[in-house]
Amino acid sequence: MVEISPRSAHVFPETPEVAHFNGADIDEARLLLNRFYYPVAVGLPEDVAGFQLGVGVIQLGPLTVGQLSFTSPVTLLVAELDAYHITMPTLGHLHARHAGREVFAGPSTGVIFGPGSPVYTSREANSVELAVKVERKALEEELSGLLGHPIEGPLRLPPEVDLSTGPGYSWRRLIRMLCDELEYESSLFYEPLIAEQLRCTVLSGLLLALPHRYHDELTGPVSAGPPRALRRVVDAIQHEPERPFTVTELARVANMSVRSLQEGFRRHLGQAPMSYLQQVRLGRAHEDLRRADPARVTVAAVAHRWGFAHLGRFASAYRGRFGETPSETLRSSG
């Protein structure tokens, strides 16, 4: 039985959607893979004793992250990929063919597929893998935002990535953490504001972890954005601090790259753009709590109004800024 549920009632363009499946019905398994990944043909050996697929998956708009487990040898065939996809075995080995290349992967290697070609994969019995799908437009727009200019043509990602060390290992840990959180109903990852930040982190981390045509430019020296452009970002934050801004969106406001925005904020304001946003939100929450009627207003309502998804972390940041808890401020207002 497939269980699919949105995890937040907030109005947000990319509300996280989560699915869990554990069963032996191949048709039901295929429908789930089709919905969250691609139309796929599932193949089993003729003498296979049984089939069991386990899936835990979360969809954050154009990003899909899941863990798939197979009890028997299985082949998956996708006629034509329409996204970037990374498969990372955590148990067992994987054989893949894509775009004229053949890769054998295990727990220390990730396989990378690009859009526009068919994909064939086969894995051993009792195998487990992390499967990450990123829509082509989303990944390329994320890169364009980081660089501050449009990109042209495919990224030309490598067919495989080393997951045993360096940036690849770090990025896999991020994906692993996200999959581990799927079983917790109260996970922060289900909050739309956090989910949007996480989506950007996964995409930008992937672009930094893999070699591609723009990697040298992405990791090279960067100049700080001009103060006038930074002022536009400051004004946007001051005007609507409750908006679920991402650093990429703030860079678009300034008409510069994310890296130039971050360097400009560091040089001229002494902090990162998202840190500045948090401080403005804390200030607005403080003003609301000081003026509120404690019989009619709750700390949670004020925190959520100003974009804080986790009350414990809000309270900790608030105390660090104002020397008292939100509840103390609210009680003193009465």
Automatic annotation (TrEMBL):
Protein keywords: DNA-binding, Transcription, Transcription regulation
Any Pfam family hit: HTH_18
Domain of life: Bacteria
Domain HTH araC/xylS-type: residue ranges: 231-332
PANTHER family the record matches: HTH-TYPE DNA-BINDING TRANSCRIPTIONAL ACTIVATOR EUTR, HTH-TYPE TRANSCRIPTIONAL ACTIVATOR RHAS-RELATED
Protein's name in the database: AraC family transcriptional regulator
Species the sequence originates in: Paractinoplanes pyxinae
